[in-house]
Amino acid sequence: MQVRTVALCLTMTTAILLSTGCTTMRSTDPERTATEQLLLSIAADKAAESLVLNIPAGTRVFVEPANFEGYDSKYAIGAIRDHVLRQGLRLTDDKAQAETIVEIRSGALSVDQQATLIGIPKFDLPIPLAGDFTFPEIALYKSETQQGVAKFAATSYDAKEGSFISSARPEAASSYQEKTVLLFFISWSDDNLRRPED
What we know:
This protein has 198 residues and is of the alpha/beta class. The chain is built from three helices and eight strands; from the N terminus they run H-H-E-H-E-E-E-E-E-E-E. The strands form two sheets. A six-stranded mixed β-sheet has the order 2-1-3-6-7-8. A two-stranded antiparallel ribbon has the order 4-5. Helix 3 (73-86) links the parallel strand 1 and strand 2. Helix 2 (34-49) packs parallel to helix 3. Residues 1-11 and 14-25 have low confidence and may be disordered.
């Protein structure tokens, strides 16, 4: 009985290996995928939109980015400048001409990843005189989640006197993509990524 059970397990494993194949797919050539860039930029857009500046419309504003750091910081700073303009404020690149200085800072601007696998992970199996063989992943259940997180804050003060005007309370914003695989072949995904065709 035990021999039959072992033989059955070996037969099933062989069938799975043959059906999954040994192909390798490269999903991206740049350092980061388009999905990662979307996760960051969408979270940045949401965090920028959440900033409440409380500055009268028409005020000449200089956005001070010296204390703003983070991955894709240039895009994030651009999103904040866009938000400032949408509030009816006037941007100036000359600090001396500004009526109000808005200092911006980043509390978070990155991507978190989490994965759960029930099954056998991919691993390299050394074969004498032939090199390594990559044993493919066998997933009874697999869940992968990527989440973009952004948290921005802003403090504004009078450009001439240096006196406090307002402080925009920082609020975290996020984006996500979830992928799930069940019983090797059944898969689905969910996300809140806005794409051009949406």
